[in-house]
Amino acid sequence: NASFDENWRDHPVESFFLLLSLFDFYSGFPGDARDLGEQGEIFELVVTAILKNLLPSWQVLKVGWSADNPVSVEQVAKDLSEMLNTKGCDDPHHWLSHHAKDGGLDVVCFRGFNDDKEALPVIFVQCASGKNWTKKIDTPSPNRWQMLLDSAVRPAGCLAAPFVIEKKKMR
């Protein structure tokens, strides 16, 4: 709860979210100075840190594609299959488009148990910090990821945004 007397530097996360929320209202702001890749990367890191605090007994992993982490969706699916104790899809290309970088998956949250069973609670998160967030509403696709993991349990999908989204915009 920052007051007007405080410096924005004392509240970096809140200030970052406020700045990102302005992009929806001011389409030209800040013009060519905006680095969408870096902005998205920072937002994913912040969301990951927030989720780790909200879900302390869960595993929370940032898995999204970035310039520093150019992992393929096939590799992410393989790694997640091992962590979630699922079989994994034999032919992931059947479920992917040719231009899929990360399958719309930026952060994974799951609650493991010590029984090596695959029926784990899982939340797949798409981080949307830019103006194109409406194109990300249906990503990651829980159905597609259930097929990619060959899982008995469909993961829950979640959209993380640095601003309030009105119900009518989600429909």
Quick gist of this model?
The chain has 171 residues and is an alpha+beta fold.
Outline? globular
For the terminal residues, how far apart are their CA atoms?
A: 31 Å
Enumerate how many helices there are, as a single number: 5
- The neighbouring-strand order within the major sheet is 1-2-3-4
**Helical fraction:** 25-40%
User: SSE order, as H and E?
Assistant: HHEHEEHEH
**Which spans have pLDDT < 50 for at least 5 consecutive residues?**
none
Largest sheet: 4 strands, mixed
Number of strands: 4
**For the CA atoms, what is the radius of gyration?**
17 Å
Proportion of residues in extended strands:
5-15%
Average residue pLDDT? 81
- Main structural class: alpha+beta
Task: Characterise this structure.
This protein has a four-stranded mixed β-sheet, covered by helices on one side. The chain is 31% helix and 11% strand. The mean pLDDT is 81. β3, α4 and β4 form a beta-alpha-beta unit. The chain is globular and about 55 Å long. It is of the alpha+beta class and 171 residues long.
